[in-house]
């Protein structure tokens, strides 16, 4: 198995963006923060962009909470700096509108009910805005390393698809249809349109009521100027992700579902020619007495049971057997991934007895990420 | 269905949610088996297109069609359905507006893509609408087609929004048929026939999300069901040994003597130190788990054991039995 060299990755000044992706609940955010701290400790100027609203992460970095602009984290060792921020997707969307239209038009858009539901609750906005924020941070040139933690999507691939899907929608045929009559001047314009279009609008009116269509139409008309830029930006960010300065880290837990998602993601990144750095498997069970196998310790515990003495040692042996059994199973799962993806470098992080609560906790995780070799290997 | 009393007699829609990684699909499947035990007919529904149910029951990916996936103890049956949003929307247009052809045309224009991805309220009302239709569906003899429906729902963070469709839809459409449809769906979800179960692990974040989720859900007027603590590790050490391990005060000489007596002569000293350290870690984790467990004051609570060898179909039956033993079905 190829070992993923985390320090080589973060020490390489050409690495400008690291994207952490994977299924929900695998420790993406903690991984991103630990990587950020380690890179800062080693002299990089880092910003970590997270989408996880959990306050625990902010607190572990000494802040009460994170918001939409980068906050400096105190306690970095060395010359580097660490900043952290949490994506506020509505705020980010509003800012784009404000930056790309005159105040009156911006006001009109921001007050539109369709825009409001689009910007606050639609699946895909978060992914799109994460991309947008990443683009902004990159263009600002204020950091030499940006670490992004991707949204907890239904499916890890949503992250790659959502920006394009949204761009497709905003630039799509349907929107153009909606837009065209307004441009051509109301009723007159409508006539030029095929019967197909009126069937579509009739259906939508029938199902959703006329108001929604009106809202969408007003929104689209007002949004027209901001529009063109949207697809272009989505494409630019997509290109940025493909550039050699970007590295994707796929994060997984040693569970079949998480590793299956990881495999999908690896395949997808390969087919899109995205720069995949490797796989991080979090929360691996391990033991410093790996020479004492599960079978041997169980047998020893049974011997003690039969003799009827040393109950403490017997239960400690059972505890150890359980740990070894779990470690063996996780090792098998990791092995399956490795044989299916022999070229993908892997690093593992042992399970922690407690959740991370401070910078030292993050440092510990960072150290494991970078450690060479695996104790059980 | 079984004659014995359960906590959920009269409930016909069981919604199962949980933070990612807590095993909500597994628990939903086990609950479906448990509810079917004794001759019931249960539909297990998946709404997020992951095909997790097919993997659990070791069957090929499910089409948009109710299929039998398992037989429960004493003759019950579990059917499964993976709802495809696009298909469900076309079905909805056909059922309520006789607009199947229009639906196909909308697909071509990318409108379906638009409504299902861009307008989440509509997407959710289509999904919950399909589920509530299966709750209401009756056979020719007027008996309900299914005794119970179990929905493998979106994660805890999104569950209130997902189920509270009439609010979502009213943001989208002030009037109109979809609004009426939303209200109909809501009448099923808010009724005493529906409960939402939360799956959690004994870890800080999943427990916090569960508590927040219960709080949010109560505000919507939807009934909270049980909390299911998944993957709980059995106690291996006595409380005294556990406490001593936590303080780092286990008698290492005694452990060495035990190891030698068990036949592990070689490296006994080294192993004893590792075993004591592992016990200390175990004690630390157990203390954390107990702390988290104490925060879950919600009743009823069900505990499901950790399975060190991973999940298979046989384990699913064991979990179903554990749920029955504790009164969940």
Q: Can you characterise this structure?
A:
Chain A: This is ArsA family ATPase. The complex is a heterodimer of chains A (377) and B (329). Chain A has 377 residues and is of the alpha/beta class. Helices cover 59% and strands 12% of the residues of chain A. Chain A is built from 16 helices and eight strands. In chain A, strands 3-4-2-5-1-6-7-8 form an eight-stranded mixed β-sheet, with helices on both faces. In chain A, helix 2 crosses helix 16 (359-370). Residues 182-193 of chain A have low confidence and may be disordered. With 329 residues, chain B is an alpha/beta fold. Chain B contains 14 helices and eight strands. Chain B has helices at residues 24-36, 52-56, 85-97, 100-109, 111-118, 120-136, 156-163, 165-172, 177-189, 204-220, 239-247, 252-261, 268-295, 313-325; strands at 13-18, 41-46, 67-71, 77-82, 148-152, 194-200, 224-232, 301-305. An eight-stranded mixed β-sheet of chain B has the order 3-4-2-5-1-6-7-8, with helices on both faces. In chain B, helix 11 packs across helix 13 (268-295). The longest helix of chain B has 28 residues, at 268-295. The model of chain B has no long low-confidence stretch (mean pLDDT 89). At the A-B interface, helix 6, helix 8, helix 9, helix 11 and helix 12 of A face helix 4, helix 5, helix 6, helix 8 and helix 9 of B.
Ordered list of secondary-structure elements with their pairings:
The complex is a heterodimer of chains A (377) and B (329).
Chain A lengths: L5 H6 L5 E5 L6 H14 L3 E6 L4 H6 L10 E3 L7 E6 L2 H12 L2 H9 L1 H9 L3 H16 L4 E5 L8 H13 L2 H12 L2 H6 L2 H14 L1 H33 L3 E7 L3 H16 L4 E9 L9 H14 L3 H30 L5 E5 L8 H12 L7
Helix pairs in contact in A: 2-16, 4-5, 4-7, 5-12, 7-8, 7-12, 8-12, 9-12, 11-12, 13-15, 14-15
Chain B lengths: L12 E6 L5 H13 L4 E6 L5 H5 L10 E5 L5 E6 L2 H13 L2 H10 L1 H8 L1 H17 L11 E5 L3 H8 L1 H8 L4 H13 L4 E7 L3 H17 L3 E9 L6 H9 L4 H10 L6 H28 L5 E5 L7 H13 L4
Helix pairs in contact in B: 1-14, 3-4, 3-6, 5-6, 6-8, 6-9, 7-10, 8-9, 11-13, 12-13
């Amino acid at each position: 198995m190829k070992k993923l060299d985390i320090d080589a990755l973060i020490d390489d000044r050409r690495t400008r963006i690291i994207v952490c992706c994977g299924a929900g609940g695998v420790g993406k955010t903690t991984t991103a923060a630990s990587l950020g701290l380690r890179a800062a400790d080693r002299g990089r100027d880092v910003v970590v962009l997270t989408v996880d609203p959990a306050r625990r992460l902010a607190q572990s970095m000494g802040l009460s909470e994170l918001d939409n602009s980068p906050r400096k984290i105190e306690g970095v060792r060395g010359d580097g700096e660490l900043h952290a921020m949490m994506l506020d997707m509505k705020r980010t969307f509003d800012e784009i509108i404000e930056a790309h239209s005159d105040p009156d038009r911006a006001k009109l858009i921001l007050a539109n009910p369709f825009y409001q539901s689009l910007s606050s609750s639609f699946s895909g906005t978060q992914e799109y805005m994460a991309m947008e924020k990443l683009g902004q941070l990159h263009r600002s040139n204020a950091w030499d390393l940006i670490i992004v933690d991707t949204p907890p999507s239904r499916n890890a691939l949503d992250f790659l698809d959502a920006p394009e899907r949204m761009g497709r929608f905003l630039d799509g045929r349907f929107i153009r249809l909606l837009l065209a009559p307004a441009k051509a001047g109301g009723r007159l314009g409508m006539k030029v349109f095929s019967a197909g279009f009126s069937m579509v609008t009739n259906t939508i009116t029938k199902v959703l009521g006329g108001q929604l269509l009106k809202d969408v139409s007003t929104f689209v008309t007002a949004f027209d100027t901001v529009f063109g830029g949207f697809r272009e930006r989505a494409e630019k960010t997509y290109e940025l992700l493909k550039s050699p300065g970007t590295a994707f880290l796929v994060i997984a837990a040693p569970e079949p579902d998480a590793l299956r998602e990881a495999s999908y993601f690896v395949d997808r990144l390969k087919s899109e020619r995205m720069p995949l750095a490797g796989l991080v498997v979090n929360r691996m069970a391990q033991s410093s007495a790996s020479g004492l196998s599960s079978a041997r310790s169980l047998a020893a515990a049974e011997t003690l049971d039969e003799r009827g003495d040393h109950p403490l040692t017997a239960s400690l042996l059972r505890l150890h057997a359980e740990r070894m059994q779990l470690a063996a199973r996780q090792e098998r799962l990791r092995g399956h991934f490795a044989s299916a993806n022999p070229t993908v470098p892997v690093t593992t992080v042992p399970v922690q007895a407690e959740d991370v609560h401070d910078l030292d906790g993050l440092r510990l995780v960072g150290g494991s990420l970078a450690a060479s070799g695996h104790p059980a290997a | 269905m079984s004659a014995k009393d359960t906590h959920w007699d009269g409930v016909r829609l069981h919604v199962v949610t949980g933070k990612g990684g807590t095993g909500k699909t597994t628990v939903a499947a086990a609950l479906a088996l448990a509810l079917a035990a004794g001759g019931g007919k249960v539909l297990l529904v998946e709404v997020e297109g992951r095909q997790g149910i097919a993997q659990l029951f070791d069957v090929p990916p499910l089409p948009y069609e109710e299929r039998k996936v398992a037989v429960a103890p004493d003759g019950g049956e579990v059917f499964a359905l993976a709802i495809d949003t696009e298909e469900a929307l076309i079905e909805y247009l056909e059922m309520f507006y006789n607009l199947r052809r229009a639906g196909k045309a909308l697909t071509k224009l990318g409108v379906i893509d638009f409504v299902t991805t861009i307008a989440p309220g509509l997407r959710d009302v289509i999904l919950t609408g399909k589920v509530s239709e299966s709750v209401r569906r009756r056979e020719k003899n007027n008996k309900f087609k299914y005794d119970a429906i179990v929905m493998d729902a979106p994660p805890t963070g999104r569950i209130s929004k997902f189920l509270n469709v009439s609010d979502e839809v009213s943001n989208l459409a002030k009037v109109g048929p979809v609004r009426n449809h939303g209200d109909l769906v809501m009448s099923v979800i808010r009724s005493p026939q529906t409960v939402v179960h939360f799956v959690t692990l004994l870890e800080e974040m999943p427990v916090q999300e569960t508590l927040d989720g219960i709080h949010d859900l109560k505000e919507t007027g939807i009934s909270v069901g049980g909390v299911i603590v998944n993957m709980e590790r059995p106690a291996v050490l006595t409380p005294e040994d556990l406490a001593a391990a936590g303080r780092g005060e286990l008698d290492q000489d005694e452990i060495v003597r035990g190891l030698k007596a068990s036949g592990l002569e070689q490296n006994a000293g080294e192993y004893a130190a590792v075993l004591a350290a592992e016990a200390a870690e175990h004690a630390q984790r157990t203390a954390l788990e107990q702390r988290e467990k104490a925060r879950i004051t919600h009743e009823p609570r069900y505990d499901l054991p950790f399975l060190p060898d991973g999940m298979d179909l046989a384990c699913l039956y064991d979990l179903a039995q554990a749920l029955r033993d504790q009164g969940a079905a």
